[in-house]
Automatic annotation (TrEMBL):
<dbReference type="Pfam" id="PF01408">
    <property type="entry name" value="GFO_IDH_MocA"/>
</dbReference>
<dbReference type="InterPro" id="IPR000683">
    <property type="entry name" value="Gfo/Idh/MocA-like_OxRdtase_N"/>
</dbReference>
<dbReference type="GO" id="GO:0000166">
    <property type="term" value="F:nucleotide binding"/>
</dbReference>
<feature type="domain" description="Gfo/Idh/MocA-like oxidoreductase N-terminal">
    <location>
        <begin position="67"/>
        <end position="147"/>
    </location>
</feature>
<dbReference type="InterPro" id="IPR036291">
    <property type="entry name" value="NAD(P)-bd_dom_sf"/>
</dbReference>
<protein>
    <submittedName>
        <fullName>Oxidoreductase family, NAD-binding Rossmann fold</fullName>
    </submittedName>
</protein>
Length: 323
């Protein structure tokens, strides 16, 4: 048993556990390599995610790594995946159970994107007092949002984000669209499912328009989500999250009374590294990179998008959520 450090950790070395892997989400591979700053090139060839092989392989070696932090332990739902991730990112320890890392690491990363599982995946580590980063979305039901809100209200160190918040192509417009006049319309496109990738579209535009969403209406289907969000600033935001929209994913358009722009996020590596650095900054300072009130509003939007679709496109008002 290793003695745990008190949070926040300041400039002390940090040991992380990378926990969980679900179908379609290769974050344990990419995030572990980005944090540890190394990988086994031969083992990487067997990684089942070609996009990860591509964008990691394009990076100069010196761009990998976050100083003073190391993924020292890994556990995945399928034990064979943990062995593979450990081989690729040169992780020293493969845990037999997720809970086995308690006492051996300083913080954990829940690297799965099924929001309905995250309360139970996080619970042992929250109760043990470990800081937790939860992959997007934090949750996708009202009950689970209240659980996470209660934990954070009790002072438990928990954060969650989408890498799209850190897209370098969008960053110049975060809270800075004055050149366009008041925004009136915002469009964003994303692929795959609203439940897992809707948060990518939402967190692409949230730092640009800011908090203050009023309602959500999803008139699409499970495969073709068409989501209209109203903002208190008088902005209509339309998001499409379509299963096979791979080639047209990651675009946003900002349109105001005096101008506008269309942008696309394409640098996955830089966004992920900035996202992970934000977690490390939280571990060192105790200051979350994003107020939890913003994360909470984003989860309300995710949940409302599901509820609206299931109710045949009904308008769901954020005022219906607990204060």
């Amino acid at each position: 048993m290793v003695t745990l450090m008190s949070f926040p950790f300041a400039d002390r070395p940090i040991r992380l556990a990378m926990l969980g892997m679900v179908e379609g989400n290769g974050h344990p591979y990419s995030w572990s390599m980005i944090i540890n700053g190394r990988y086994d090139a031969e083992a990487l060839k067997a990684c089942p995610y070609p996009a990860i092989i591509s964008y990691i392989g394009r990076q100069p070696p010196e761009t990998l790594g976050i100083p003073g932090v190391e993924v020292t332990h890994v556990w995945t739902d399928n034990p064979a995946d943990a062995v593979s991730v450990a081989a690729v990112a040169k992780i020293a320890n493969v845990a037999a159970r997720a809970e086995d890392v308690i006492g051996a690491v300083d913080a954990v990363v829940i690297a799965t994107d099924k929001g309905f599982e995250h309360v139970e995946r996080a619970r042992p580590f929250v109760e043990a007092g470990l800081p937790v980063f939860v992959d997007k979305p934090l949750c996708d039901t009202r009950a689970d949002l209240e659980t996470f809100s209660r934990w954070v209200g009790e002072g438990r160190p928990i954060i969650s984000s989408s890498g799209m918040r850190f897209a370098k192509e969008f960053a110049p417009y975060h809270g800075s669209t004055h050149e366009f006049g008041p925004l009136r319309t915002v469009f964003a496109t994303m692929a795959k499912k609203w439940e897992t990738y809707g948060i990518h579209a939402l967190e692409s535009i949230y730092p640009i328009v800011g908090p203050g969403f009023v309602s959500v209406r999803n008139t699409g289907t499970y495969e073709r989500n068409v989501v209209h969000l109203k903002h208190e600033k008088g902005i209509d935001i339309v998001l499409t999250v379509t299963a096979d929209q791979i080639g047209g994913s990651g675009f946003i358009t900002l349109a105001g009374t005096e101008g506008g722009v269309t942008l696309r996020s394409q640098d996955t590596f830089t966004a992920f590294k900035a996202q992970l650095e934000s977690y490390v900054g939280f571990l060192r300072t105790g200051v979350p990179p994003v107020p939890f009130a913003h994360t909470r509003e984003l989860m309300q939007l995710v949940i409302a998008g599901i509820e609206s679709r299931e109710a045949g496109g009904a308008e769901i008002f954020l005022s219906s959520f607990k204060a």
